[in-house]
Q: What sequence folds into this?
């Protein structure tokens, strides 16, 4: 019993020591005051954090797991549900894709609207973007190409083509959902999107990758995103 107690005390001491080394303020760049930067995070010794991203402030609990700083790991992410229905339209030389968007919100959360979905046919390089209105760019990505705008029936049409699978991606999904055609002659596809409640004030199960004195944003594959500027730990004489 005494040995177990000593082990628990030792583990707690090691974790406390590790967390103490990591606590502090990390921001974009290494000079200037905090107000000069849009993004920074303060990791406090009581395992709470304050994260400012593009002018918005977020609060919660942080944990260290190997080389990852986890933000609110106990608040799990939810993902949208997508279902596909297919049918065959006689005497049609085109493919029709319909979007049926079902918003969902709880008390205190904002209602959401459909913005964009990406659909590919068999291979990811054979794709279209479906949007409600024309989009010039998408978040951090390049300009949006191959756009199709929904008509008044919430549908788009494209030229007829042969394919066996459709990949579907939209907001609040973490990866493509791949649907296999049950009928090779199907030319009408309806996607029903059941979205999740949107709460822009809560970070859910996000993380940074710790490398030395820097916190890196993760890529989609969970590795360091070298295309984004990391947050660098500030020295005490820089905290002004």
A:
């Amino acid at each position: 019993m005494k040995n177990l107690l000593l082990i628990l005390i030792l583990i707690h001491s090691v974790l406390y020591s590790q967390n103490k080394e990591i606590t502090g303020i990390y921001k974009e760049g290494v000079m200037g005051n905090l107000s000069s930067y849009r993004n920074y995070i303060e990791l406090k010794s009581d395992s709470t954090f304050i994260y400012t991203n593009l002018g918005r402030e977020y609060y919660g609990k942080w944990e260290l797991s190997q080389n990852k700083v986890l933000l609110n790991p106990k608040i799990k992410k939810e993902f949208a549900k997508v279902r596909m229905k297919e049918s065959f339209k006689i005497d049609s030389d085109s493919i029709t894709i319909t979007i049926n968007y079902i918003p969902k919100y709880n008390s205190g959360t904002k209602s959401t609207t459909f913005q964009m979905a990406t659909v590919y046919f068999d291979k990811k390089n054979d794709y279209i973007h479906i949007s409600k209105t024309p989009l010039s760019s998408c978040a951090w990505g390049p300009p949006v190409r191959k756009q199709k705008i929904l008509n008044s029936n919430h549908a788009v049409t494209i030229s007829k083509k042969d394919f066996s699978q459709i990949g579907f991606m939209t907001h609040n999904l973490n990866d493509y959902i791949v649907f296999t055609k049950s009928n090779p002659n199907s030319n009408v596809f309806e996607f029903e999107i059941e979205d999740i409640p949107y709460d822009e004030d809560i970070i859910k199960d996000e993380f940074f990758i710790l490398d030395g004195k820097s916190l890196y944003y993760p890529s989609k594959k969970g590795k360091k995103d070298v295309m984004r500027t990391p947050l660098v730990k500030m020295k005490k004489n820089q905290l002004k």
